[in-house]
Amino acid sequence: MRTISLALLFGLLVQSVSIASTVTDGDVELSVELDRHTAQVAEPIEVTVTVSGPNGTVVGFPDWEDLLAEFLVRQVDQAENLPANESGTRRKSVAQLVVESFQAGDLSIPSIEISYRESSRVSSSRIIRSEPISFQVVSMLEDRIDPSDFRDIKPVIDVDVPQGRSNWSMWVTLAGLPMVALFVAVFVWSRRHPRELPAAQRALAEIDEIKSATELQQLDAASVYAELTDVIRSFLQQRFGFDSSACTTLLSGDAESADLRVGEQARQQLDRFVSVADQVRFAKRSISQQQLDQAIDQARDIVVTCDSIDLSQAEVV
């Protein structure tokens, strides 16, 4: 038992070990990190891509869904022009992705090509490429015991069952089966199709849950902003029918090129929220409990403002 426990603990430790690859091109550095060495089928894998360089470096990220076509890209968060050192001489751009694989075996994150310019005044771009990162995806169905391998299982023995004198119980059972089947069908349908709350009500309820967890100190600052960002992302997708790229634009601080249906007031609110969220999530900025409470209030204001927009009169790009 002790040997099995130690083996299980070792397996968990190996699975949780992150993998990183770093390459440089002059003063520019590209780092790609996976949060685990081994994952299960359909288990989320976090991929963090960081590009750092001297002040003024302009970075262009690739189309992640095209690059990672063999994976399911669940989420993309990008932040640019963040401080990379205490002296303020370097800046960094960060992309955090959540991907999944439904294929078991030895897989790899392919080489990632990042275009960059060392200054906005430079017209030509350079390319920096990362090395592929290999990892393993395992299936929970592998190595299962085949029941036919058990040699001591006896064959089925036929036993004569005496017949009763009356079949009235059989007829009662047969008559009640349709009613039971109908009840089960209705029950299953109601469980699979629960009554959904409107997008705004659901978002506000989730924000209240985050606030409660914050008051109990169950979430750190980065987790609070990550949870709030996910709530806002889901709400925008349901409220305006945005796809993932439109939400990424809104939540990357590029409000000027965002869909105009959101409205000027909401875009300004998103700008204020995102500017601090990127500093906390990617630059590891420390903030107070009061600032966390303000972030929660900002998220709530964004939901209320967007919910009040009349979509029939909203301006569309």
Q: What features would you describe in this structure?
A:
It contains 8 helices and 11 strands. It has helices at residues 2-16, 64-67, 168-192, 199-215, 221-240, 244-250, 264-281, 289-307, and strands at 19-25, 28-34, 38-40, 45-54, 58-60, 72-83, 90-100, 105-109, 113-117, 126-129, 133-138. The strands form 3 sheets. A 5-stranded antiparallel β-sheet has the order 1-2-4-7-6, with no helix packed on it. A 3-stranded mixed β-sheet has the order 3-11-8. It has a 3-stranded antiparallel β-sheet with strand order 5-9-10, with no helix packed on it. A hairpin with an 8-residue loop joins strand 9 (113-117) and strand 10. Helix 4 (199-215) runs antiparallel to helix 5 and helix 4 runs antiparallel to helix 8. It starts with a helix and ends in a 10-residue tail after the last helix. Mean pLDDT is 78; it is low at 1-10 and 253-258.
Topology of helices and strands:
Elements: H1 2-16, E1 19-25, E2 28-34, E3 38-40, E4 45-54, E5 58-60, H2 64-67, E6 72-83, E7 90-100, E8 105-109, E9 113-117, E10 126-129, E11 133-138, H3 168-192, H4 199-215, H5 221-240, H6 244-250, H7 264-281, H8 289-307
Parallel strand pairs: 3-11
Antiparallel strand pairs: 1-2, 2-4, 4-7, 5-9, 6-7, 8-11, 9-10
Helix pairs in contact: 4-5, 4-8, 5-7, 5-8, 7-8
